[in-house]
Amino acid sequence: MKLIKLNATVTASNDRDAEELRKKLKEKGTLLINLMSSAGSGKTTLLSRVIRDLPELKIGVMEADIESEVDAQRIEALGAKAVQVHTSGMCHMDAGMTAAAVEAIGAEDMDLLFLENVGNLICPAEYDTGAGKKLMILSVPEGDDKPLKYPLMFAESDALAVTKIDALPYFDFDMDKCIERVKKLNPAIEIFPVSAKTGEGMEALEGWIKDALNEWRN
Ligand SMILES: Nc1nc2c(ncn2[C@@H]2O[C@H](COP(=O)(O)OP(=O)(O)O)[C@@H](O)[C@H]2O)c(=O)[nH]1
Ligand SMILES: [Mg+2]
Question: What is the architecture of the domain spanning 2-217?
Answer without folding.
Answer: 3-Layer(aba) Sandwich (3.40)
